[in-house]
Amino acid sequence: MTITDQSKGFSRRSLLKSLGLVAAGYAVSPAQAAASAQARQALPTYTGPEANPYWNSIGPLVQYPEKVPLIRLTDRPVQLETPRHYFRTALTPNEAFFVRYHLPGEPNRVDLAKWRLQVEGQVNSNLSLNFADLLHLPAVEVVAVNQCSGNSRSDFQPRVSGGQWGHGGMGCARWRGVRLRDLLDQAGIKSGAKQVQFQGLDFGKGPEGYGSHAFMKSFDVDDPVLDRAIVAYSMNDAPLPILNGFPARLIFPGKFATYWVKHITWIRLLDHEDSNFWTAKAYKIPNTPNADTTPAAVAAGQVNMVPIGTAEMPVRSFIVAPDGATKLAAGFPISISGIAFTGQGGIKRVEVSTDDGKNWHEAKLGEDLGPYAFRTWAFAWTPRQAGRYILAVRATDGKGMVQPDHSIWNPGGYLLNRIERQSVVVGAAS
Predict the structure, then answer these.
(1) Going residue by residue through the chain (430 aa), what tens digit of pLDDT does each one get?
(2) How far is residue 425's CA from residue 55's CA, in Å, rounded to a whole number?
(3) pTM, rounded to two decimals
(4) I need a labelling partner for 295 at 20 to 30 A (CA). Which of 39, 79, 408, 410 fits?
């Protein structure tokens, strides 16, 4: 299994010490607050009219608390994209990890002396756990990709609304925390419970609809994903950055990031179907193969829409190097490299083409960090002649799913996983 027991040898005091406290308060520093204030300027989203031609989205590099300069899509709510070069390794640095909020009231301070994780509703015993309580529960660990549902949305044609992400709305980290199932078992689920609802601390005026003022997501109580979910308090062996969910967030390996609720504070067992906006109306996909449909079918009301949580992340792969600006010379060896991942059974094969998909060659896979993690890959190539080449990459996952070489369309701009290409120019050897 991907989730491993980390109870032995884990230093709870070390984690608390790294926060500069023992169950005390946490807040951004004056310098971090100044950087945040400097960064909060209105920014228009990408407007097209064509698909975004770049690997990343179009936007300025800005620095937020605990972050290196990231690409800003919007400032309210905060949407920050990770630049391409941070994907050269399987684990994405915390300070470079993308940020996605849905509401403008993201917290910039959490007082651990007051924060509690509440488990309530259709349970036998309500739970109210402080941070130290979480650290004293059996710890588990998983390496998993957190990918925004709308990652690569700017490639959709016809264009759809929403954050116009390039390919940087994703990241992979080593998450440590407690099993969600252990918390649910400790509380005891009553027989009448139908769904588990999750809510964090972010708030504000959202889209029109009931419950949009707070970000909430739900799964059915019998959904198997609950058995592999964890409540994480550590990210790459460090406390979570405030913009990535401090002090704790949900991790649903294999599922899209919309369910990975940040600053998790309430877990509620409901005796009814969740009707809040973010579950009942938002993040829907067509109930069709690969979530593919047409604008005409949607306009005609011919498409049955279901929650995106019914799908696992499809297999994907990306060329990270070389990029289009890299200077290459004929007759010299080049390493083509990148990452691949899936929500279904891990990466089993990666193939590279140097002639726009006419011929394929197997790449060498990097370390296997688990079925939900980034898998690095590399392919050695020596171009013999000068000219323009179209590089392509495709991955195969543990369930035998192979990346397709065609686009899909749906009104949310979700689940795109077509074969990625990179144009490079090879010059004559001097």
Answers:
(1) 467 776 554 566 666 666 654 333 444 444 344 434 433 444 444 444 455 557 998 888 999 999 999 999 999 899 999 999 999 999 999 999 999 999 999 998 999 999 999 999 999 999 999 999 999 999 999 999 999 999 999 999 999 999 999 999 999 999 999 999 999 999 999 999 999 999 999 999 888 777 789 999 999 999 999 999 999 999 999 999 999 999 999 999 999 999 999 999 999 999 999 999 999 999 999 999 999 999 999 999 999 999 999 999 999 999 999 988 888 999 999 999 999 999 999 999 999 999 999 999 999 999 999 999 999 999 999 999 999 999 999 999 999 999 999 999 999 999 999 999 999 999 987 6
(2) 17
(3) 0.90
(4) 79
Q: Does domain 4-282 have CATH number 1.10.1650.10?
A: no
Amino acid residing at 35? A
Map out the domains of the chain as residue ranges: 4-282, 316-427
Query: Whole-angstrom Cα distance, residue 163 to residue 167?
Result: 12
Distances, alpha carbon 421 to alpha carbons 53, 277, 383, in Å: 12, 37, 17
Tokens of 230: 């964890």
Beta bridge partners of 171: 146
Q: How far apart are CA 401 and CA 26, in angstroms?
A: 44
Note the Cα 100 to chain centre separation in Å.
9
Structure tokens at 363: 């790449």
Measured distance CA(195)–CA(390) in Å, rounded: 48
Contact between 324 and 379 (Cβ < 8 Å): no
Cβ burial, residue 283 (10 Å; 0-12/13-18/19+): buried
Task: Give the phi and the psi of residue 315 in degrees, each rounded to 5.
Answer: -65, 135
Task: Find all residues with CB under 8 Å of 191, minimum gap 6, and list them.
Answer: none
Return the CATH number of the domain spanning residue range 316-427: 2.60.40.650
Q: DSSP for 356-380?
A: TTSS-EEPEE-----TTS-EEEEEE
Q: Enter the tokens of residue 65.
A: 């608390």
Q: In 3D, which of 234, 223, 241 has the Cα closest to residue 137?
A: 234
> What residues pair up with 197 in beta bridges, in sequence order?
218, 268
Torsion over CA of 205, 83, 259 and 287, rounded to 10 degrees?
100
- Tokens standing for 176? 């440590």
Taking Cα atoms as reference points, which of 55, 59, 50 lies closest to residue 78?
59
SS3 226: helix
> 100: phi > 0 → left, psi -120 to 50 → alpha, else beta; which?
beta
